[in-house]
Design a protein that fits this description.
Blueprint: E1 2-3, E2 6-7, E3 18-26, E4 32-41, E5 46-55, H1 59-76, E6 82-85, H2 89-96
Length: about 100
Amino acid sequence: MVNDNVIERRSKLKIGWRKINCDGALDLKTKVVGAGVIVRDYKGVVVDGKCRRRMVDSLLMVETLALRKGIGFAIQRKWQNVVLEIDSKELQYVLTKNCKMID
């Protein structure tokens, strides 16, 4: 599916794969943020997760911290078969602006 120049791929994970959903939230008044990850196995069962409060002033930074935490989860646990999922169009643009999509 193509929506607003963002390619979205949703498919069932193969056995042994995990999906790491990375997300952040920002309270503009207090500048308190939450960055977290939820890990699901190929069946969609939650197998791990973590969140953390931080003090930053940019939603892009919050989303980036969440993605960094998700990547750290995979590295620490030596997971090789992972899908990282983010919902920030701004972060996706920053990460892919000079990349070509290969199927």
